Here is the input.
Amino acid sequence: MSSPVRPVDLNYGLDDVPKPLPSLGLGIQHVLTMFGATVAVPLILGPAMNMPPDDLAILVSSVMICSGIATFIQVRFGTRLPIIQGVSFAFLGPFFAIIAATAAQGGEVTMQYIAGAIIAGAVLEMVLGYTGLFGKLRRFITPVVIGPVIALIGLALFESGAPMAGGNWWFGALTIVAALTFVLILAPRLRLFSLFPILLAVLVAYLTAWFFSAIGVLDESNPAYISFDAVGDAPWIRNLVIEDGGIFLPWGWPQFSAGFILATLAGYLASMIESYGDYHVISRAAGAGDPTEKQISRGIGAEGAGCVATGLFGGFASTSYTENVGLVAMTKVASRRVVYIAAGFLIVLGLVAKFGAVVATIPSPIVGGLYCTLFGLIASIGISNLTRADMSSQRNLLIVGFILFMGLSVPAYFENVTIEISWADWLGDAITTVGSTGMAVAAIFGLILDNVVPGTDEERGLTHLDDTRGPVGEAPDTDDGTAGT
Here is the structure.
């Protein structure tokens, strides 16, 4: 049964249907809100796979299509709440481990293994959701565990930020300064900057780089140089064939590796915990009280179904977007119709090949500036989850400190070590891949220690399970209608 909730003065409720023009505008606003984080992930992972511009354009387009499909599945068949689904930062650590292990085979093969890991993990997520098991397992996953796991999403990538931004520090620094200015100074004063701070920061740096490229200050050898040659060569509409860069299986058929699947499960752990909290926040913001147990189970199951789709359509695993949950709280527009339109708009953007080609022209120093800005924020959001546990407890201090350190130290050990088991090659590969993924290491140690070492519910943070903050952003404060940055 839903708990009592303060009445919400909504502009549009869940079943309301705004007129076509307002619906379109409100739907596009959802897309713009999630655009920065959604595009950032392929721009981060694509270069790590040494993808050429045309493949990176396909990757960006695939991510948009997958986000639209996953959103539709969630709103139509899942919680039936106005939740946007998008690429999750929670999977960056496992995906980087897969990239490192398959780098010699090329980007297409890497994406095949990523797709296999996504699909296998998604099947488990569907089982946990639709059987209701996730609700029963939830009390074993406390802030003491999930906080460090989320923090390691950002901390584990510390070697990538400054080196990439340093390709041209003028534009890397411009991205960082613009993002910090928009978030910390302008956002509290102007709503535009509170809604789109990262998108606007990238736009400022991008337009500046384009201007200096156009007048000849930057030449083709400069990492910040922008060329539109690939945009001109790209077709207007994505290839509709299967495989060969088409919409379905653009990278080829998925390949499955036990080690890659186990490492990716750590991302699913963080993703499900984040979504669990988002369901409560969005349900209250929509005036529906707390979501029911069945509703949460359907939501987790639908996220799994959406992730299966993303694996087949060439994107990355998806989760609920906290930024868009905050947008619903701010605008007081909870209409499902608006989110359906946003999902459709995402799919249309993905079908337009030139859109992906334009995004692929964003220079690496600007992406490096995003690294520096976003990943530190993700780490701090993870750490903020620890406020829900008793951090004056010696038990919690030791567990948190140990799993954080091991999440950084064990992968360093596995950089020069490969486990070989003659009678089970797959097991050796699995141990090596999991050991190379900081999130997976932290999750394993954390789950064991936090559930074996005695502690009270208050000490472990079990009294605040609904308030978990995930790696996409802070949970919005629906009491006053504002959202976290």
Remarks:
- Confidence is low (pLDDT under 50) at residues 1-7, 473-485.
- The first helix runs from residue 20 to 48.
- Strands lie at 85-87, 318-320.
